[in-house]
Amino acid sequence: MGDEEQHGEQPARDEKGRDREEFPVVGVGASAGGLEALKELLGRMRSGTGAAFVVVTHQHPEHVSLLPELLARQTALRVVEAAHGMRVAPEHVYVGPPGSNLELLDGVLLNPVRRAGKSPPLPIDRFFRSLAAERRERAICIVLSGTGTDGTLGSKAVKAEGGMVMVQRPESAQYSGMPASVVSAGMADFVFEPADMPEQLAEYLRGPYLVREAGVEQGPVISDDILQRAMAMLQERNRHDFSRYKTNTIRRRLARRMNIHRIAEPQDYLRYLQENAHELDLLFKELLINVTNFFRDPEVWESLARGPLRDLLEALPEGHTLRAWVPGCTSGEESYTLAIVLRECMDRLGRHFSTQIFGTDLDAESIDAARAGVYPEGIAADVTPERLERWFTAEDKTFRVRSEIREMVTFALQNVISDPPFTKLDVLSCRNLLIYLTACLQKELMPVFHFALRPGGLLVLGTSEAVGDHTGLFEPLDNKRKIFRARDVPCRVGGKERKGMADGTVGAPAPAMGEAGKPGEQRQFSRLVDKAMFARFCPPSVVITDRGEILHVYGRTGRFLEPAEGEARLNVFDMAREGLSLALTGALRRAQAGCKPVRRPRVRVKIDGTETLVDLAVIPFDEPASLRGLFLVTFEEPPPRPPAEASSEDGKPESEDGGRIADLERELQESRENQQSTTEELETTNEELKSANEELQSTNEELESSKEELQSLNEELSTVNTQLQSKVDQLSQAYDDMQNLLDNTRVATLFLDTDLKIVRFTEHARELIRLAPGDVGRPVGDIVSRFDYEHLEDDCRVVLRTLESKEIEVEVKGGTTYLMRIGPYRSTRNVIKGLVMTFVRAGELRAYFESIVQTVRHPLVVLDGDLRVVSANRAFLWVFDLRSGAIVHTPLYEIAEGAWDVPKLRRLLEEILPRDTTFEDFDLDLVDPRSGRKRTFMLNARRLRRAEGKTGMILLACEEV
């Protein structure tokens, strides 16, 4: 049946071939123990939600799945098995077939063929990621019972796009691995029992968030006032200003949180934020959008390693410490990726440098996760198997970054917008931050990044980002992949100039080659012209700070300034000649207060014992911005007054005494102003001194308190030392207990190091292998054993390389069979330090497992490779009214008067042996030979793992329905 026949008329498409309808799609991931959860979830799901459901499970490719039929009996929705090329439609449930790799693209389900020899990606993560990219805000994922961490990385992708994540309560799951992993990662919006999920999901789908996104405007939009008030509350609680983030992104996140809490009015959500501090924390984490992955955009890293990074490493001098910075590192994937790429480049070039990579972020929980370096198994979809084996250690459904990579990276909390940047960097990778910031803020950060990089350092941006107007600061190396090199030009950040080897205008690119000659010759010519102009038109001048510190001197200022006695100081007030200091102090004070030039004409200065008049001017710098806060002080000797100018206001000639009186009155007025200003400053200083005395008193009290705390801490340290001694004694006792346990157990055990040399052995091992105390440190291959086995060293090396345990049945000279098990020896820090070899008599193992099988109350039967009965427990014999001795070695199809001879069961069992597969939940109808009535049993079959070279048996479990 074609797609059109299945789903009716296809939805309309836009110019890019996408669905215009854009209905929500719900991805459901389940693994072990997920069948009951799926039944509860879909059994209570009513039609009318307008969403499509896609169920993805863990099933072996050769498994015959009855899941679509089972689910179809439970739900009112239409259930179909997903197929490649099938278009999804609302009110349908699509069940992924066993071994599928489902993806969603343009509303169509794809099931690409898995490449031979390639490790399969986790199917739930794979589908959730494609769902997030396809449906964005209308993507919803549900994680049910299952082992491992599949679904965690996919749920992060859904949250990053503004979708919703719902998780089964781990306590209710038969296997809590998958749900617990999503919850611990902080990705779950809702945590419910499966039976309670449909109601909450329906409420969410009916909310205004998804309706508005679909183009139908319902309810009020989030106004600028609401937005600013929410941002103010966030800043007050988390001390981070989101006002310079893109407002559209923030509005979408606010709308999503409102929809989760079923709040329709923005004003009501604002009130909810005021009353619930926890919601502010959740909103803060959501706005940070802490989502990334290893080797994101692989072609970027390949291009970086192939060219710019290789050139950088080749140019570095020996002994150089390579420094890198990853702002907005979230949970550390980007930082570790950079560390791996750097290490691989250094290995290829044969040049190794001490490396410091700084990963920073605002979110403390993300930083803690990055420091731990433990990631879900889903990273296998992003990291090649070779890199996984070399740079990661496989743990229980997770991967841990190896210590040699973790030690290259330092993680810390930092706000890249307000905190000082790291400096003298060789590489700066910012690929997860700028797209969320406003264009104005991005423009401000580019000079900061240039300041942080040393000349020639590399800047790597996200594929949707650029350096903007700052092309003069960065040279593009790969425009497509956004890799840049820092130019050697000056750059001003926060009023401080970062200078390279080249000169030029602050913040401007290096001058281009022109007709006048080379750039260096142009700059030299410009300096000569400037010098001639200043000499012709400018009086002697100095540039000072607001405290009078001289930064630059121009012209011959010796007539007005002279070095002060004692230690050399470059302060204009200390160096001012007699009569100039008072006028200079007052003029600088007025220039600071009024932010405008202040002039003091005809100031009397004593130079070499004679009085001279000087016109003093203090001019504050307003432009350029880099010089703000500095002042230009000029000294200019006025020309003598001509007789025509020496007249009074009524036009009559002014006497010499009159001019003198006018000068004295002006000086008196200036003295009064200076005195008034000095008095005000003195009063201010007294207040500050009083405040400082109070702070000093408070500091003394704090020091006294600190002294008492230090004394208390010393007492605590003494207690800790006592406890430590107790722990040492306990450790010694535990060591003695372990030694006695090893010596008294009947299990022969041998400990080897990574060079296959003997480290320790139990007494019972000497019965199998001729060992003496002097054999510690000898290679295991040199020891003569009582059993005949030639591949011991080869098997040991295989286990060391693969870290997978190995079991082999070996025979001792004399006929006794032992099960030899070789496994890796892991330290408490999860470091492989060698191997552990144990030898157990096969008969003892058989008796041990036989007792377990007989204890189980469900009917169990073990079959050999020819489907003959090897053993059956008491429950099996009782249910089918059989005797143990009568059915051993009897074909399964002949027992119970041939009741087991069912064609479908024959096909399933006979496919298990050659293909090494399993089947679960197979319904079988048997006729009870005693009563003649039909009884229905649910069967589960699985191959039993055997030692190498032995034919596997089948365990068949029955449960009456």
Write the SSE topology:
Blueprint: H1 3-7, E1 25-30, H2 34-43, E2 52-57, H3 67-72, E3 78-81, E4 86-87, E5 92-95, E6 103-105, E7 108-110, H4 123-135, E8 139-143, H5 152-160, E9 164-168, H6 177-184, E10 190-192, H7 197-206, H8 208-213, H9 224-238, H10 247-260, H11 266-275, H12 277-288, H13 298-306, H14 308-315, E11 321-327, H15 333-349, E12 354-361, H16 364-372, E13 374-376, H17 385-391, E14 392-394, E15 398-401, H18 403-406, E16 409-413, E17 425-430, H19 439-452, E18 453-461, E19 474-478, E20 483-486, E21 491-493, E22 496-498, H20 519-537, E23 541-544, E24 550-554, H21 572-575, H22 581-594, E25 598-607, E26 610-620, E27 631-636, H23 656-744, E28 748-752, E29 758-761, H24 792-802, E30 806-811, E31 817-826, E32 832-841, H25 842-855, E33 860-863, E34 869-872, H26 874-879, H27 884-887, H28 903-915, E35 919-927, E36 934-944, E37 953-960
Parallel strand pairs: 1-2, 1-8, 2-5, 3-5, 8-9, 9-10, 11-12, 11-17, 12-16, 17-18
Antiparallel strand pairs: 4-7, 6-7, 13-15, 14-15, 18-20, 19-20, 21-22, 23-24, 23-27, 25-26, 26-27, 28-29, 28-32, 30-31, 31-32, 33-34, 33-37, 35-36, 36-37
Helix pairs in contact: 4-5, 9-11, 9-12, 11-12, 14-15, 22-23
